[in-house]
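Contributing new records

If you add data, match the layout below exactly. Sequence lines come first and carry their own label; structure lines follow with theirs. Keep one chain per record. Anything else will be rejected by the validation script.
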Amino acid sequence: MRRSTTSLAALAGAVLLLAGCGSKSGSGTHPGSAGQVSPPAPSASASASAPGGCPATVELKATDTGRTVCVAKGGEVRLTLDGTKSRPWKPVMASGTALKGINAGFIVQPGNATAAYQAVTTGTEKLTSSRPLCAKPAKPGGVSCMGIQEWTVTVTVK
C-alpha cells in the first residue's frame, strides 16, 4: 500500500496548528485594553505553603503588575523592578497595615526599585510604583513623551 503525500501533509499541518493553539502571542497589554493578554502568574518561591494555602515567600517582578497575590502571615514579599538610568522606577509605596518594610538586602542598580516586606497581620495591602514610558530626549528640542508606566500589586495576607 502506498501512503498519500496529501494526507501526510494534512496531518503535519494539523499537528502544527494544534501546537500553536497553546502558545501566547503579543507582549501583554495593559489591563482593560483590547486584545488583553493575561500577565503571567507571580513567581512564588519554592517554600512550603502555610495552613491557609498561601506561600511563605512571594517574589514579584515588573511583569506581575495588576495581580493579586497571597502570602502567609509571618512570611515575606520581595520585589525587584528592573529599570534603567533613563527610565527609573520610583520607590515602591505600600498602602495598608498588613506588611512591614524590612531590609531588602539587595544591591540597587541605577533605575531599579527593590523592596521587601514581612507579612505582620492579616489583611490587604497595595504596592505601587511608576516610571516614565520613554527616556528624556538626548538633546534639547528632541522628541519626548509624558507617559507613565504604572505598577500595582495587591497583597493579601492570610
